[in-house]
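Why run this: before we spend reagent on co-expression, it is cheaper to look at a predicted model of the complex and decide which construct boundaries make sense. The entries below are exactly what would go into the expression plan.
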Amino acid sequence: SGVIDTGIGYANNVGNGTQSKVGGTDSILGVSNVGFSGKEDLGGGLSAIFNLQAGFNPTTGAQSASGQLFSRNALVGLDSPGGKLTVGKQWNFNDDWLVGSIFKGGYNSGAIFKFSEFDAVSEIYNNTVKYVSPTFSGFQGGAMLGFGEAAGSVRSGQVYNLAGRYQQGPLLLAASYDHEQDGNASLISNGSLYKLVTLGASYGFGALTARLGYAHSDISGPGVFQSIPSQSARKAYAVEAGLDYAFTPAFTGSADAIYRKNTTLANNSKVYRLLGIYSLSKRTSLIANIAHLNNAGGASESLVATNSTAIGGGYANQSQTAVALGIRHLF
Amino acid sequence: SGVIDTGIGYANNVGNGTQSKVGGTDSILGVSNVGFSGKEDLGGGLSAIFNLQAGFNPTTGAQSASGQLFSRNALVGLDSPGGKLTVGKQWNFNDDWLVGSIFKGGYNSGAIFKFSEFDAVSEIYNNTVKYVSPTFSGFQGGAMLGFGEAAGSVRSGQVYNLAGRYQQGPLLLAASYDHEQDGNASLISNGSLYKLVTLGASYGFGALTARLGYAHSDISGPGVFQSIPSQSARKAYAVEAGLDYAFTPAFTGSADAIYRKNTTLANNSKVYRLLGIYSLSKRTSLIANIAHLNNAGGASESLVATNSTAIGGGYANQSQTAVALGIRHLF
Amino acid sequence: SGVIDTGIGYANNVGNGTQSKVGGTDSILGVSNVGFSGKEDLGGGLSAIFNLQAGFNPTTGAQSASGQLFSRNALVGLDSPGGKLTVGKQWNFNDDWLVGSIFKGGYNSGAIFKFSEFDAVSEIYNNTVKYVSPTFSGFQGGAMLGFGEAAGSVRSGQVYNLAGRYQQGPLLLAASYDHEQDGNASLISNGSLYKLVTLGASYGFGALTARLGYAHSDISGPGVFQSIPSQSARKAYAVEAGLDYAFTPAFTGSADAIYRKNTTLANNSKVYRLLGIYSLSKRTSLIANIAHLNNAGGASESLVATNSTAIGGGYANQSQTAVALGIRHLF
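The model came back. Tokens follow.
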């Protein structure tokens, strides 16, 4: 099974911060992948599960992470009435419980996790053990630990993630805490920390769903982190509000506004995003997305990679508009 | 599904233009690949289609294009009574309509697309949109556009391809035009061009099929092209004539002669090729191929890569003979 | 189909030869892979066979051999009453006939093939032709040839392997000879040789199986070999004795002792290994493994890679203990 998500796109202010670009575009709603997954009943409510997902970019055929065959899940474990325990390379709970339902947005179409302080809003960690509880009265909790594998220090490069969600009728609430330890420091007492808290809620009113998400990032200093590039000490928060409306059973439109504020550097960014999904079938959809980014106070975030080397990938105070038209097909 | 095509081979004049080599040989008739493809009926004559093909070399297990999982097709799109529209990484029409039926030959067994000016006779392009018309009275047309994705210039690195073919009873006619723009030039007015025209015809007389193909290449100067290495301005043409004869239902023999002439540099190359395919079943064949190359006037083309760094991969005026024995299995 | 083998592990004396490490661990019993294989009946006892296996590490999703899609088999060929003939990238007979049944042990859990002179006890060779005979009264023989593909020298980089095994009731006997020619030498008369002889026996007494294996390695000098790093001339032998006992139908315990002696350098290493496998089903097992390595006389072997650059990957005269807990799932 798998999913292909690709099309064509336009973005302005890419080269030198002023030149526009037209080209193939991947990951409008999410990464393309081909995978193998399954469940074996072991009796007594116990089962063995596995999931291997090879991420790729259809426009070039390239692996989405260089040298990694199964860059988008490589897990195996046991599922039981007492919860699910898995090991391998695994997504964090933000991606599992908040990205698809609350934050939304794809890698090339305006997403909160593209902001420089918020990469861990959608991250897959190496060397992990992950536990997901059963659902009790709508509540579900989870914890994961990613080993840093540093000799002489259990904490160097270590990652952990705690999360919970609550679903009752039309209401979804979710929260997650990611904790990434600098993997560079030989003496862990000198290592920096990257901490990310996310909170999200969504509520459905018939054909309308309202979404509200919040993320707070605290980076204590430069370091080697699994999800973010090295950057000096800073704190930032981001808020996303979105609406999804099913105009017809086949056509859904979404509108989102994202506000990011780096309180340390006193800069901010805004993203406005419109998305239309027209389903030709359960497996095939046509996608149109437009996003506009505004940077202020010296912020240099980007929707689509430019040739700038600044943190965030864009040019200071420069805005950017990105349009994508594509197709998404599940098989 | 997939195909494995491999065996053992011999080539002379490889090391220093004089030493011979024996070894494993891939791609005697074509690249090995494993893939996923499918069609979903969307009703009203419309369907969603996809095709992902991972190219590999059985002798080493390596990916046939470094870092690319699906190097041999990564497309998704829609098929309808009005034609087929697909996006992704896709083969050009030369490969679709002329290589398998008219030019023939494999990567390690003497093929017209191995000549330095004729790589685009078999090429897969990145970032493409491709349209193939329905068939009208035996005629079918197609067009594809590959984005260069250069900031500030829509044309830099851009590729397009127009083609048509006509099939009626035993007759096949096909023509294609490839247009590749230099992807290096920041100011497109300075960019070089690579233009390739191909024409082909085949006709079946019972157990005998006669094939005739022509290609004309026009390279306006050095540049970064998707299919050819950078080379100075030059024009060249190549002609291939071939016969296939089905001696028995299981055994087919082919004989081809290829003549290449670089009119700018006044050099030329000839290839003579004999191929035997013995089918053990519809899925499994044994293959024997022998090809002889002759370079004249300073030409340095090659059948099999040598340690020369000259354009064409061979040594000036040196000949080469390559033999391959193998098996081809579809699954 | 495929297999995932991963978990968590601990090893001491990794960093600077003194620091310990905790982390994800792959290949406790063997490499994880996903593959495609099949057999096509061609009639008359003949069939076409193929096997493609993509090796990967679940802890990171990475390909187990960089750039190789099918690093753990890429073969195609014919099977017949007269034997099996295959071409491609293929495992040697040591791996086929001795590793799984006599030596045992995984890449991260204490195995004879981790010793610096004994890599060829488990090796996959490029560019090979392999023949396996039918079984005559319990005896089976095999031969394989791997081309070095060096221009001007058929022998440079060439590999061959001869082997036989005998199975009768509870008795298994196996022997293999690997011969690897230095691929670096332009004049083969100057090339070094790596020769490896292995002998093994196992016998089942009800729930108990006893295993005894021997390997002798002769490296004539530095060179570029397919399976071992370049090292000065040396000879070494290794002996492994092991017991497997099925405590219950679901639980098997194994105990092994391995002694390695480098007779040229007069150093030695010992490994003691305990393994428990608890089968939740035919497809799913839980694994616990503990191995202890002891180096003496200047030996610098390792169970798990350290940051030493010495031959063997460890620190001279340093011991190492490695523990792994994991799950193995076939699909």
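The mean pLDDT of chain A is 96. The radius of gyration of chain A is 20 Å. Bring this page to Monday's planning discussion.
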